[in-house]
Amino acid sequence: MDLTKKASVIIVTYNHSEYIENCVKSVLSNNPLEIIVVDNGSTDGTLEILETMSEVRVVSGHGNVGYGAGNNIGVTVARGEYVVILNPDTLVEENWLEELLKPLESHEKLVTTPKFLLFDGSKINGAGLIVHFTGLSFLRGLNADKDEFSKKEFVNGIAGECFAMRRDDYLKLKFDENLLAYNEDGEFSWRLKVNDFRILYVPESRFYHDYTLTVPPEKIYHLEKARYLILRKYFSLKQIFIIIPSLIIAEILTWGYAILKGSSGVKFKFRAFLDSLKNEVDPVECNIRNLLENLDFQIPDDQLTYSTLDKFIKRFANMVFLINYKLIVSR
After folding, report:
1. Alpha helices of the chain — where are they, by DSSP H?
2. Which residues lie across from 10 on neighbouring strands?
3. Contact 116, 207 (CB under 8 A)
4. Cα–Cα dist 286/195, whole Å
5. Sign, CA torsion 110/296/270/306
6. What does DSSP say about strands 198-209 and 90-92: parallel, antiparallel, or unpaired?
7. Alpha-carbon span 229 to 185, nearest angstrom
């Protein structure tokens, strides 16, 4: 059996009629076992387009349950040995799937994540995820030259736009359904690390993503709520105290960005904190030192940066992060 015939490709969509047909056709050129589209209540004609595509299994009728929960639904009904999570606003290259699956054949407890470029192919959109120990997450390699990040290497995070793993492994972990959208891939990366999974970046597997980095106030809400839930989930109060210098810096950075967005930014930032306290979380017992050694301790100073002062502040923040991080892992 061809390797690609062992894979179920899961695409969660919500009002993606502009993209879904071309996305599915590009995936079909990779010859997967099946394509499962989980529709989260689209009202823009997405379902009508999918009805004309007999090669696709459509799961719908559950409403907008969010990206993570939608993927959980798709993987549950999948038949493949491997599952591949993919965003709908993408186009994949012809060897994308095979290259992404190859490492999984010979390694246990492994997840693979590809290189993805902006839609016009001019720059990198992502090469894995930077998963910072304060709960912040950033796309690794964002806006780098398309030929950079050209070697396979282990990274600390998967980008939710696309990753692959064994179906049985996914079902043991799953996305956290408390997170409706944004940073669910960051939380899933923490979960992978706690459970001793490695994440391999595979640049030979490539696709194109229609993406512009923007963080409007509503997105601040989802990102920050997820960050607070991650901290509550993976750190005890004692452990929170140990990293408090870094958390203070993270708050300064995120509050500063929220303030730049005006009253709406402040409102959604504050609401994210309050709502995160209302959610019940199941604390994860883990060795804090081992966990931190598998997370990133620096943030990029060129993402969401608007001035020389802004860049200087982020570089100062990275100094604090590094000192705090080294004190913890050297204990």
Report:
1. 20-28, 46-51, 67-77, 96-106, 167-173, 184-194, 217-234, 237-242, 244-260, 262-278, 288-293, 308-329
2. 36, 85
3. yes
4. 9
5. negative
6. antiparallel
7. 13
pLDDT digits (tens, 9 = 90+) for 96-125: 999 999 999 999 999 999 999 999 999 999
Distance between alpha carbon 241 and the CA centroid of its chain, in Å?
27
* Domains along the sequence of the chain with CATH: 3-209 (3.90.550.10), 217-329 (no CATH)
Report whether 10 contacts 24 (CB < 8 A).
Answer: no
Question: Would you say 98 and 3 are in contact if contact means Cβ atoms under 8 Å apart?
Answer: yes
Q: pLDDT tens digits, residue range 209-248?
A: 999 989 999 999 999 999 999 999 999 998 999 999 999 9
Amino acid making up residue 202: V
- Rounded-to-integer distance, Cα 314 and Cα 307, Å: 11
The single-letter code of the amino acid at 287 is N
Torsion 232-237-238-241 (CA) sign:
positive
Instruction: Map tokens 């990040």 to a residue.
Output: 149
Burial of 163 (0-12, 13-18, 19+ CB in 10 A): buried
